[in-house]
């Protein structure tokens, strides 16, 4: 983890031509939100799978396929779903699942296909939530999101701009951490390997790190105050993050498609089954 | 006006009155802790509105009483530039940054932009408006801070040590920008009044119209035109321990050595002129640097290359640096910001793990030794003392170095007590290191590097942000250690300090070692200094330009001048 | 919102940035846990309480946990954009939950027990909602108990940790000028406009 590797202001990374980057971050959050909430209450594997497919399609069409995205969607996701299906399956109560097909048995413990299916459903549900969130997450930057919160959700701008200023603390934090760690190392603070020494080392760096950060923050606050920060209930916004027709279109379209998928899965598919 | 910080006994500043007229440049001087920064904060109402402090008296700026106006209202009359450029940047691009203030004032967007453009053009940053401020140099970021202040449209600019973090080139940039503000052609724009707090008088002096001096207790000591105050009250100023222009110190020194100059000079150019107009004795033969003949080597660096960062961001920082430091040398490492000075020093002291087999400190290789062994051979003092504090009291902080080496308790106590006494820290024995004053923190960090008895001491910018008295105190301490045989390595931007104290100098530029030689040889080489992006120290500048006294031209140290130390 | 000085806001932001970096680390640990031993997921949930607790214990003012949680969420999300809403939502939600018990006393009581009670309740609420998503009804009874217990215990443990950090910071003189004094003395209020 290297704190210096991110530039939260790198908004120019947005490739032209891909529509997701040109939408308001709130639209990209609002579109999948209702279905994310509904998904939490589903218990079958098909419905989340449908929405995973939907989200993947939207991302593939609307966002550029970087290495990270490709790895996430096509390697990490299937892997996580597989592992989770088993681990959740292992933890389910065997007496509450369909016991018709026995997959394997270790001593007294019997692993049924039913348990695996329950695990699969859970894993797919979590994966669906993750991928749906990715629609907005992968295609908007933090600062854009903060600006949208200020402009559309009317979050007080003093809070929003404080959060923006906080992005500037991140690389500084990383750098300070590095310096403090090496300073403590050469002074022979909690030498040795193993978790206990590691915890003691970490504990020793927390105070200087936070103390330095807070003192820096106080200086930044003075600089902001002396530039009239908070003078008026509003401030001039030069960078508008408008909520346009296309944002509405995207949201409504997404809702409609979601509703259709849900309805289909309810009526024709295994349905919004809540087992008891 | 007087101010007392919460939880403090003393008033700093105490009972101070003065005024700044439009278009005037006022320099505020005073020893560390006299309340200069506090006073500056009071001018736009940050004291008492944002900083908890008791405030008596009144400050009126632009017709507004700071006690009854908000900081925001005052910001249109008084703009601030602080010491640390990084602590003033809030947004992601240069343009956004300058717009930040006017936007807060709720000005219409086109007015915001036109103000921003004007301000950026004034400091010469308009071309770089789309860049991330992090990409600017230190001097560039500080010019950006000045532009931000200008964009507020205020008549008074308050700058608190604006160049303390910068290399000589950056300092020049900042003062060039300031100079164009006050001395631009009449009618080219509004002439701003400036209140300046600054330690580096040599850079600032030709800009200043008037000087206001606070004494150690924060009271107003002097207030008057630059020359009257600085030259009229020299002895008191020396006594207070505030910084003075090097040219003036040199002239004082000469006066005691029997060379009387008709007018005391303030700038190198004035010193040159005064000396050229006077008959001078042959300069005292420079005392031959004492023990350099000794051949033993304390630190040997051989073809050292260092890379930092991880993965794709891994970049080489030092390129095949080779260097030998003799035992008992006082080596100064100089260079511009980012030249690799800190990295070199840290590699030598094993702070960043150097590659194996490249460095030898008193027979050990910091690349493969454990911490205890390294600590016994070389002590390292970080630029920010707080980074290296690991204990909860001053006493434990000093004892730590001994404890991890298994020194027994009575011996530890004896040595800690001894060091506390030597560094004047007895009364702070049980205080948390973070609660010490800046000067005390610095002494403690030197003490904790020393206590293990290492024969080599490495310090990163030890005099940064200290007043003259404190800096001298520390340098005397180092000189004392050096005289007893400790090899001292310092990284510094203060070339006059280098000239006065170092026996040898290593010049870094872009990760390469440009040169390593005796101080006189390096500081005498203008071409070399220019290539490294540096300037000759003020005294050398003055001497170099002498027309009538060729035998004085090579001088660069105050100690080379006839007369006793004028400290 | 004028009640919160810029100083206070930025101090919270600084603590939040620290918290955010801890979130990122715990995010990887948490990912591993939920993939392999989902019942133990509650173990790391306490991490999300850290920034809020540190700021509340250090500054003793209303709104600080929310502000800290918000920054922590945003910052950690910047590292793992694919989890933007996971971090952001968690940071914000827990910050909000942490405000409630203190808001009930109108930010007058800052005793230790309130912190622990708050942590326990918030853990329960949070564990409950994650529980719906995971479909806990399929879990064996033992697993259910362990699961919920961890969701309560972990926040309490991390609250203790956060309070220790805040105490160490206070000892080093950090945040003194903006912290609300322990013994309330009304005389010195009003230094800020
Ligand atoms: N926020 C604060 N809280 C409490 N005391 C403070 C605070 N800031 C400054 N002081 C104290 O007030 C006095 C004046 O400090 P100030 O920073 O104004 O001095 P200064 O003249 O600017 O010193 P320097 O040259 O070191 O910058 C000092 O004793 C300092 O310790
Ligand atoms: N950990 C690191 N990772 C990546 N780059 C680094 C790291 N540390 C330093 N650098 C870079 O290496 C270069 C040299 O840094 P260094 O701190 O040695 O310079 P310096 O000469 O001490 O400068 P200054 O006068 O500003 O202190 C700089 O460009 C810096 O950005
Ligand atoms: Mg100061
Ligand atoms: Mg350096």
From TrEMBL, chain A:
Transmembrane segments: 46-63, 70-91, 111-139, 248-266
Alphabetical keyword list: Membrane, Transmembrane, Transmembrane helix
Topology versus the membrane: Multi-pass membrane protein
Presence of keyword Membrane: yes
Protein's UniProt keywords contain Cell division: no
Highest taxon in the source lineage: Bacteria
Primary localisation category: membrane
Coiled coil: none
Compartment(s) where it occurs, according to its Swiss-Prot or TrEMBL record: Membrane
CDD domains to which the protein is assigned, alphabetical: EcfT
GO cellular component, one term: plasma membrane
Protein name: Energy-coupling factor transport system permease protein
Automatic annotation (TrEMBL), chain B:
SMART domains reported for this sequence: AAA (SM00382)
GO MF term (any one): ATP binding
GO cellular component: ATP-binding cassette (ABC) transporter complex
InterPro entries, per the entry: AAA+_ATPase, ABC_transporter-like_ATP-bd, ABC_transporter-like_CS, ABC_transpr_CbiO/EcfA_su, ECF_ABC_transporter_ATP-bd, P-loop_NTPase
Annotated ranges, domain ABC transporter: 1-242, 299-535
Keywords annotated in UniProt: ATP-binding, Nucleotide-binding, Transport
One Pfam family it belongs to: ABC_tran
SUPFAM superfamilies associated with the record: P-loop containing nucleoside triphosphate hydrolases
Family from the record: Belongs to the ABC transporter superfamily.
PANTHER family given in the database record: ENERGY-COUPLING FACTOR TRANSPORTER ATP-BINDING PROTEIN ECFA1, HEAVY METAL TRANSPORTER
UniProt-recorded name of the protein: Energy-coupling factor transport system ATP-binding protein
Organism: Plantibacter flavus
Biological classification of the source: Bacteria, Bacillati, Actinomycetota, Actinomycetes, Micrococcales
UniProtKB/TrEMBL annotation, chain C:
Sorted UniProt keywords: Membrane, Transmembrane, Transmembrane helix
InterPro entries (alphabetical): ABC_thiamin-permease_prd
Keyword Transmembrane among UniProt keywords: yes
Presence of the UniProt keyword Membrane in the record: yes
Transmembrane segments: 7-25, 31-50, 62-79, 85-104, 113-134, 146-170
Name of protein: Energy-coupling factor transport system substrate-specific component
Species: Plantibacter flavus
Lineage of producing organism: Bacteria, Bacillati, Actinomycetota, Actinomycetes, Micrococcales
